[in-house]
Structure formats: C-alpha cells, structure tokens
Amino acid sequence: MPATRTCGYDPLRKGEVASGVGAARDQVRLVDLNGDNRVDYLVLGDHGQVRAWLNDGPAAGGGWAWKRTGEVASGVGAPRDNIDFADLDGDKRNDYVVVRDNGAASGWLNDRIPRS
After folding, report:
1. How far apart are CA 28 and CA 105, in angstroms?
2. Pfam family of this protein, just one (predicted)?
3. pTM to 2 decimals?
4. Buried b or exposed e, range 64-90, using 16+ CB within 10 angstroms
5. How far apart are CA 85 and CA 60, in angstroms?
C-alpha cells in the first residue's frame, strides 16, 4: 500500500459518509454506541443532550445508511464541550462521560442502546 497524506492509510473511497442533519461541526461526534465496531452519528445539545443516528453501513444504492434513533441522553446540564464518550465497563458500547474543568470525570453507563 503506497503511503499517502493520510499517514499510510488508503483514503476512504466511499465519498461522503454523512450528509449532516443541520448541526454545527462542534455539535457532531462520531462514536460507536451499540458495539458493532461502526461509528454512529451523534449531535450534542447545549446542555449535553444527545441525539443519535446508528450506522447501518454502506447503503445498497451508494453512500451510507443511518438509522435515526432520537434522543439517547437527556443531558446533565454540562456544556457539550465537557461531554466525552468512552467504554467504561468493557461492553464495547461507549458510555457518556462528563469531564469537568478541574479534570474530574463522571460517567453514565450506556444501557439504552442494544448491543449489536
């Protein structure tokens, strides 16, 4: 595989993978919520609420297929810049994490999205 400007990886040749839902760039996160090893499309609200579209993989007619899931987290009042996602319990589904300005972190386990 020839080296490219993408640090040695071949560029994704599927074109656009998500057309967007009208959210600003700083609101969007790509995170695997259901443990299927495909990133899902998340939109974070001002107070940490999360809407999700699950990644169903390449669509038959080209592009990518996304399944709208709706709101998966109502938020805890933290600003979206303090929201992160990590698999805290090893179930391959990313969990909701708030990292405060002092570096302390609080987590909520992802038990709403069924594991794939």
Report:
1. 21
2. FG-GAP_3
3. 0.83
4. bebeebeebbebeebebeebebeebee
5. 30
pLDDT at res. 13: 58
Residue showing tokens 């899902």 = 40
* Domain assignments of the chain as residue spans, ordered by start: 25-108
pLDDT (tens digit per residue) in 52-76: 999 998 888 777 899 999 999 999 9
Q: Taking 70 as the threshold, does the pLDDT of residue 101 lie above it?
A: yes
SS (H, E, C) 48-111: CCEEEEEEEEECCCCCEEEEEEEEEECCCCCCHHHEEEECCCCCCCCEEEEECCCCCEEEECCC
CA distances from 8 to 39, 42, 105, 116 (A): 21, 28, 34, 30
How far apart, in whole angstroms, are the C-alpha atoms of residue 20 and residue 113?
21
Rg for the chain, CA atoms, rounded = 16
The mean predicted confidence, pLDDT, of the chain is 87
Cα-based distances in Å from 25 to 1, 28, 79, 108: 32, 6, 15, 24
